[in-house]
Amino acid sequence: MVARLSLNAISKRYGSKDQQVTALNEITLSLDEGEFLAIQGPSGSGKSTLLNICGLIDYPSSGEYHLNGIAIAQLNEQQRCTHRRQMIGFIFQRHQLIPAMTVYENIAYPLLLNNISPKKIRYEVEQILTTLDLMQRRKHLPKQLSGGERQRVGIARALIKRPQLVIADEPSASLDHQHAQSGLQLMRELNQAFGASFLIASHDPLVIDHCNRKVSLLDGRMDDLA
Predict the structure, then answer these.
(1) How far apart are CA 201 and CA 79, in angstroms?
(2) Which end of the chain is less packed: N or C, by CB atoms within 10 Å?
(3) Residue 128 belongs to some domain of the structure
(4) pLDDT tens string for the chain (226 positions)?
(5) How many other C-beta atoms lie within 10 A of the C-beta of residue 116?
(6) Closest listed residue to residue 88, CA positions, set 168, 152, 3
(7) How far apart, in whole angstroms, are the C-alpha atoms of residue 204 and residue 168?
(8) What is the pTM of this model?
(9) Which runs of E-coded beta strand occur in 84-145?
């Protein structure tokens, strides 16, 4: 079986040679289809840099990255964008919602980009709004929502297109226990129904307990945890 995600000796360096900072130091990691992987580590350990590389937002300085067996280094920018749009869902710590769009429109946007029919979009969005207790907020703008509500919209937007890989940066941030459980349950349903893989950076014990594998990042180096 081809791994969903495979990193081989991935490094990320910033600055000139005489003032170089190494954010990631030869990270080797494999994520299988349907796997939940938690990345733990303090601020500044390289977690966000790693997520950005895996999400095709940033480029490594060296090493090899394969996504579903595809060598990412061989893709041009347009191909990277297509893979990112079609295959990857993002849950950001700061939500990254579009301010001028309503809750409904923010969630529907990934489906619009993938040319899904209006009827299908309406059905999918209403389903996920109901699951995450957001139906009554569907016409609200992000500025009219609480932090927890914005986080739930971010989770809904990431999962609505049923991505093969979900990259999450503190997905339970701003959520109370009940809504964190709802979000995690939705992730598990996507995982079980479609084999989606999850790469999650989190300090939350509730989130970590849902993961079947855990690794730690410290000073740009990775170790497996029991």
Answers:
(1) 26
(2) C
(3) yes
(4) 678 999 999 999 998 777 889 999 999 999 999 899 999 988 888 999 999 999 999 999 999 999 999 999 999 999 999 999 989 999 887 778 999 999 999 999 999 988 899 999 999 999 999 988 899 999 999 999 988 888 889 888 988 988 999 999 888 877 788 888 877 887 887 777 778 899 999 888 888 888 889 999 998 999 886 5
(5) 16
(6) 168
(7) 12
(8) 0.86
(9) 88-91
Cα dihedral sign, 34-93-180-90: negative
Domains identified in the chain, total number: 1
- 172: which DSSP letter? T
Going by C-alpha positions, the residue among 176, 104, 177, 98 that lies closest to residue 134 is 104
Amino acid, single-letter form, for residue 77 = E
CATH number reported for the structural domain that contains residue 220 in this entry: 3.40.50.300
**Tokens representing 18?**
């005489």
Q: Which residues on neighbouring strands pair with residue 169, listed in sequence order?
A: 201
Interstrand relation of 5-14 and 62-67 (parallel, antiparallel or unpaired): antiparallel
Instruction: For residues 137 and 109, give the distance between their C-alpha atoms in angstroms, rounded to a whole number.
Output: 16
Q: Kindly give the residue spans of alpha helices, DSSP state H, lying in 13-117.
A: 47-54, 77-87, 103-113
Task: With respect to residue 100, please indicate whether it lies within any of the assigned structural domains.
Answer: yes
